[in-house]
């Protein structure tokens, strides 16, 4: 069945990216491009494709200059180059793809006396003439290369779009992470006074219960002292009565000692002069520590 679609329903095609010119020569080339040219191992290409690879590298350096990106070599002599945008570094390698092909025995080739002399060969990896630009580790398998329908020069706008898109995504992720850190820090700062208050309430609640218990115990001792006095009055043995009286006096003093009402300064809500994190850490919300703010 054929279904007709309204023109309004056709998704708009993305506008083509502006092309990036590739210079015709390396005159006035970037210092990093000169280093790629002069330092062995920074470009894994054949002599036949090296000039083109360097011109593409210079085109990338020129575009970086227009966009305000930094272009330079990778660290510690790693092959390729790096592009830095908003402190976000993207590392690239520029190389020539390999393919299966006929490989001459170099020693026997050097020993051959005549151009027409046949030299043994074998199948191995040989340079293909196709350049490939690869975005290095940490970014997945992202690359652009010469193919039948296009060449690497035509893919340079896509390279810079990838850089711009990844930069925007990383900056957005960085902003979200920073906002989350600020949110966690604010939540921690708000939790600190609540935890301290909970600690103080628990401290004074415990004091209150202990005072009430001591008051009840003091009243019980005084009630018992009254019974002891009755026992003294009923005692016919003067020596026994004397011992009971001494015991009663000591019991009364013990009741006075433990009675919180005899220590008026203690009858108040106390706040210690210093409160350590170890005091209120147990009152912090789950996952938070009183000792340090969240990372």
How are the secondary structure elements laid out?
Blueprint: H1 31-38, H2 47-67, E1 70-73, E2 81-85, E3 88-104, H3 106-111, E4 121-135, E5 142-145, H4 156-234, H5 238-258, H6 277-280
Describe the structure.
It contains six helices and five strands; from the N terminus they run H-H-E-E-E-H-E-E-H-H-H. The chain has two domains: 17-146, no CATH class; 189-283. With 295 residues, it is an alpha+beta fold. It is rod-shaped and about 145 Å long.
Query: Biggest sheet: strands side by side, in what order?
Result: 1-2-3-4-5
Total number of beta strands: 5
Q: What radius of gyration results from the CA coordinates?
A: 44 Å
| Structural class category | alpha+beta
Strand content: 15-25%
Spell the H/E element sequence.
HHEEEHEEHHH
| Low-confidence blocks of residues | none
The N- to C-terminal Cα distance equals: 59 Å
With helices defined by DSSP (H or I, 4 residues minimum), what is the helix count?
A: 6
What helical percentage do the residues reach? 40-55%
């Amino acid at each position: 069945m054929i279904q007709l679609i309204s023109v309004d329903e056709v998704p708009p095609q993305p506008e083509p990216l502006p092309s990036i010119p590739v210079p015709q020569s390396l005159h006035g080339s970037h210092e990093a491009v000169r280093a790629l040219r002069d330092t062995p191992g920074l470009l894994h290409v054949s002599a036949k494709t090296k000039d083109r690879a360097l011109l593409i590298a210079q085109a990338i350096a020129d575009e970086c200059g227009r966009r305000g990106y930094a272009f330079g070599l990778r660290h510690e002599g790693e092959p390729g180059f790096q592009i830095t945008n908003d402190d976000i570094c993207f590392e690239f390698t520029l190389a020539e793809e390999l393919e299966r092909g006929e490989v001459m025995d170099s020693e026997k080739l050097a020993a051959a006396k005549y151009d027409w002399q046949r030299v043994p060969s074998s199948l191995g990896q040989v340079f293909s003439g196709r350049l490939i630009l690869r975005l290095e580790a940490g970014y997945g398998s992202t690359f652009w290369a010469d193919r039948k329908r296009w060449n690497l020069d035509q893919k340079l706008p896509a390279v810079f779009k990838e850089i711009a898109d990844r930069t925007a995504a990383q900056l957005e992720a960085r902003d979200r992470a920073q906002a989350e850190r600020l949110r966690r820090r604010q939540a921690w700062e708000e939790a600190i006074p609540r935890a301290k208050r909970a600690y103080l309430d628990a401290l004074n609640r415990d004091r209150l219960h202990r005072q009430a218990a001591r008051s009840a115990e003091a009243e019980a001792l005084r009630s018992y002292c009254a019974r002891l006095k009755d026992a003294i009055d009923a005692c016919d043995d003067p020596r026994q009565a004397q011992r009971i009286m001494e015991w009663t006096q000591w019991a009364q003093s013990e009741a006075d000692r433990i009675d919180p009402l005899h220590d008026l300064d203690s009858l108040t809500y106390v706040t210690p002069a210093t409160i350590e994190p170890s005091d209120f850490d147990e009152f912090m919300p789950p996952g938070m520590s009183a000792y340090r703010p969240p990372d």
